Amino acid sequence: MKKTVKELATNICLTVGHRDRIYEAIEKIAGDKETMLACVVDEQNVLRGVITPKELLKVIEVREYGATRSPFFEGPEVLHFLTSRYAEDIMTGPISVKADDEIEKAINVMLDEGFYEVPITDKDGKLIGEISYFSIITSSIDYLSRE
Fold first, then answer.
1. Domain that holds residue 17
2. Can you count the helices (H) and strands (E) in the chain?
3. Would you give the DSSP letter of residue 20?
């Protein structure tokens, strides 16, 4: 029998409001020190997007250091980061799995997107938790030791 996401899920995930100012989102993320992914939610706790360390570093590089590096940045992207005000302005689209999905789906999202955690949403898109690579590899230790 295959494992499902809910078997390894945790309800602990870092959330920021979609209308949080960028500095507020960065404060929350920096204060957490345990997750690599911030889930951006609206007032109804619906997942609107995610903020990864890559987005944060791009914003900081442009805004604080005035630097840009090719090939990551082009004119429109630099302008976007300079004029962004809210978490929703720097997030990427909502990427998630459902609680009843098989673990393989979460692994594929992690590998395809370069994430260490993946948000879990219900059928209405509301955030209910996350699954991390650590919970996946920890759950596989017994299996791997039998090989």
1. 5-146
2. 8, 6
3. S
Q: How far is residue 139 from each of residues 8, 12, 47, 68, 96, measured CA to CA in Å?
A: 8, 18, 26, 41, 20
**Sign of the alpha-carbon dihedral angle for 8, 11, 12, 15:** positive
Q: Which residues contact 113 (CB under 8 A, 6 or more apart)?
A: 95
Number of domains in the chain: 1
Distance in Å from the first CA to the final CA of the chain: 18
Whole-angstrom distance, CA of residue 18 vs CA of residue 25: 9
pLDDT tens, the chain, 147 aa long: 689 999 999 888 999 999 999 999 999 999 988 888 999 999 999 999 999 988 888 888 887 777 666 555 566 676 767 778 999 999 999 999 999 999 999 999 999 999 999 999 999 999 999 999 999 999 988 878 886
**Alpha-carbon span 114 to 101, nearest angstrom:** 19
CB 45 within 8 A of CB 126: yes
Find all residues with CB under 8 Å of 10, minimum gap 6, and list them. 129, 130, 131, 132, 135
Give me 146's structure tokens: 């039998």
